[in-house]
Amino acid sequence: MPSISCSDCYKNNSTMKKKILALVTGGTFDKEYDMITGQLFFKDTHLHEIFKRGRSTLDITVRTLMMIDSLEMDEQDRDIIVKNCQRSSFEHIIITHGTDTMTQTAKVLADANIENKTIVLLGAMIPYKFGMSSDGFFNLGSALAFAQTMPSGVYIAMHGECFDWNDATKNRATGYFEHLKKMQDN
Amino acid sequence: MPSISCSDCYKNNSTMKKKILALVTGGTFDKEYDMITGQLFFKDTHLHEIFKRGRSTLDITVRTLMMIDSLEMDEQDRDIIVKNCQRSSFEHIIITHGTDTMTQTAKVLADANIENKTIVLLGAMIPYKFGMSSDGFFNLGSALAFAQTMPSGVYIAMHGECFDWNDATKNRATGYFEHLKKMQDN
Amino acid sequence: MPSISCSDCYKNNSTMKKKILALVTGGTFDKEYDMITGQLFFKDTHLHEIFKRGRSTLDITVRTLMMIDSLEMDEQDRDIIVKNCQRSSFEHIIITHGTDTMTQTAKVLADANIENKTIVLLGAMIPYKFGMSSDGFFNLGSALAFAQTMPSGVYIAMHGECFDWNDATKNRATGYFEHLKKMQDN
Amino acid sequence: MPSISCSDCYKNNSTMKKKILALVTGGTFDKEYDMITGQLFFKDTHLHEIFKRGRSTLDITVRTLMMIDSLEMDEQDRDIIVKNCQRSSFEHIIITHGTDTMTQTAKVLADANIENKTIVLLGAMIPYKFGMSSDGFFNLGSALAFAQTMPSGVYIAMHGECFDWNDATKNRATGYFEHLKKMQDN
Question: What pLDDT is recorded for position B8?
Fold first, then answer.
């Protein structure tokens, strides 16, 4: 049985129904293929369709803040993300984000010292719309789970793992996030 | 910051690399369509393919215990599942399982009082092999996350939620699992 | 250059815009998975969705005659199919049909001696809705092509080939249609 | 019954087993998404996989001539395509090709006056690898059918239709091929 012996464990009490906020910022996760130009572009977020396909019964509110490649994010864009997290009454937040500068946004969020909120950034290496080869669906499932169970803080959820905000770096050659800190075996 | 103030929070320290055991028992999750007979049947588990598609970097060991519809599970089958969990050195276990009798197996596991292990059962309403309409991929992502973060105990992970073993019942009309206990709002 | 030297070649003049009639009778082609019962069943035909996905610019009219497994077809059902072909003003007709008794329906149509019409039956071994593994999409593309180019008569289009109505038999062990007549090499 | 009253109808005798040559030149049809660069690129052709998925029983020989975007094709590239068609003993040839300059290649082939061969170019607006949204699979099914039934000559098979080589123009705004000649109703 979960022992409610500290404020962090409180979050792990699974009889607590969590309200989750999903902030959309774009990234490869939501890109689509434009058959006329042969380029990738953004239309609307696919989150609603994905929750439906996952048969999600979670209480999720979706807000699209922007739909951009994270390489194009600037200080104002990150400020919008921070402000939305700060002002929100939600204690569990996921943020879809391009993988290229996800760690930068994670740092800005951590530096803002937002209390009592579990914020999980996630992305995809292959657009969700590209079907059976996309990791987006899997990452979303794990991010939503981490958002419900991790203690307050800022995290990155990619390829099944949950990284502390200051423990992740994207390996641009392989496309994987790696731990900066020394990993202890379990 | 996660405060390591109790043994349960210990599990939430994301610098701990978790070794996960995935036990396969079958269920709709792993069913395939037999074009000759027009029926669904089992071949091998698709877990390896799914982890690859999700680009999972988790340390997961897969063991197929059986490939059956959970309606066909009997006492001996459940005993095999329990024994495999008991004897295992893994502290984080996911079990793919048919949704029809998932709560029965969860109860048998809970009654076995297996200490220091987080055991998460998951399934799918639509076979993973049926492509874009399957909830299997999403459930697996969340189950792996819950297996890493939830305190010791037995859980059911379906459609994004994590149910205590004694808090879930499958609504056979809708195909969704529902909470038995009164839900508190967050 | 195509020489319009006989009435059959007339059909091959690609500047002739063909109006095509698509008659839906069911079969594995249009089956769906019912997650509540775990069985396959019929809802509506997916033909419209398939034409859209194939970006078809053909002039196709769709009529659903029935949605049944072809093993359940009886004399009256086949009579409905024949009458619809006879009364129709369309000269190019495709019929989606279960593969199990497709040759029976083909014979009944041929025996009806319907003049000046190219009638092509097609089916699938895997439901279109099962995604990337379905042969339905491919068979439909070829059937529509054969319906535009073959001389008047009744045909079966499966796995890329066009069989004369009396030249096909379904191999129930392999799921493939085979030629009854001796094949000449080209 | 098909009347073998002219050399062109000969091709429509479905008891003639046709050997088909599939020449691969690239184009959107065979492009893939490179998750590291975020760009589309070429690896190997997917034709073999597609024939398997369509459960094709056709006698098809695949030869990859090049894997390029058709905007990059030059005179030498087109010469390679022409020579391969000329020297080949196959009488039925399909050519996967980018849609942007498909009509140019079709003209060069027609000008080469290759006798006794039915040559059908096809492409896709969405890469086959992008799954459920690709028109590639459908176009391939129809192209293979047209290659078996059309009289000698050069054609373009796109979105279900078969265009004479000099009757097609790609509408770059919509992505569809349109007829240049006046269409007669059937």
Answer: 46
Distance CA B138, CA A56 (A): 9
- Output the six-digit token pair for C9: 């070649």
Query: Whole-angstrom Cα distance, residue B162 to residue B147?
Result: 10
CA distances from A142 to A177, B19, C101, D179 (A): 15, 16, 47, 50
Distance from the Cα of A169 to chain C's closest Cα (Å) equals 34
Cα first-last separation, chain A: 21
pLDDT in tens, A13-49: 544 679 999 999 999 999 999 999 999 999 999 999 9
Q: What tokens were used for C4?
A: 């319009």
Supply the ipTM of this predicted assembly: 0.91
Distance CA B168, CA B176 (A): 10
| Chain D residues touching residue B132 (CB < 8 angstroms) | 131-132
Spatial contact of A28 and A17, defined as CB atoms under 8 Å apart: no
Task: Quick: pLDDT tens for D67-81.
Answer: 999 999 999 999 999
* Residue C66: C-alpha distances to residues A62, C25, C84, C88, C107 (Å): 41, 5, 12, 17, 19
Torsional sign, CA D58, D63, D69, D71: negative
What was the pLDDT predicted at B31? Answer: 96
- Which residues, at least 6 apart from D60, have a Cβ–Cβ distance to it below 8 Å? D20, D21, D22, D51, D144
Position of tokens 């669904």?
A: B40
Per-residue pLDDT at B12 exceeds 60:
no
Tokens describing residue A105 = 């946004």
Among candidates A33, A132, A133 on the partner chain, residue whose Cβ is nearest the Cβ of D126: A33
Contact D38 A40 (CB under 8 A): yes
| Chain C interface includes B176 (CB < 8 A) | no
Interface check for D132 against chain B (CB to CB < 8 A): the answer is yes
Q: At what angle do helices D75-87 and D102-111 cross, to 10 degrees?
A: 50
In whole angstroms, what is the distance from residue A161 CA to residue A158 CA?
A: 6
Residues whose CB is less than 8 angstroms from the CB of residue C186 and which lie 6 or more positions away in sequence, other chains included: D16, D17, D18, D19, D91, D92
Q: Please tell me the distance in Å from A69's CA to the nearest CA on chain D.
A: 11
**Given a cut of 80, is residue C10 above it in pLDDT?**
no
Would you tell me how many other CB atoms lie within 10 Å of the CB of residue A44? 12
Does D133 touch chain B if contact means CB atoms closer than 8 Å?
no
Are B97 and B156 a contacting pair, CB within 8 Å? no
Q: Inter-chain contact A36–D173, Cβ cutoff 8 Å?
A: yes
The span from the CA of D97 to the CA of D157, in Å, is 11
What is the H or E stretch that residue A65 is in? strand A59-68
Ranges A73-82, A123-132, C26-35, D98-107: which has the least confidence: A123-132
- Verify whether the Cβ–Cβ distance C185 to D8 is below 8 Å: no
**Beta-carbon neighbour count of residue B181 at 10 Å?**
12
Residue B7 has pLDDT above 50, yes or no: no
Q: pLDDT exceeding 90 applies to what percent of chain C? A: 84
pTM: 0.90
Tens of pLDDT, residues A157-184: 999 999 999 999 999 999 999 999 866 5
A52 contacts chain B (CB < 8 A): no
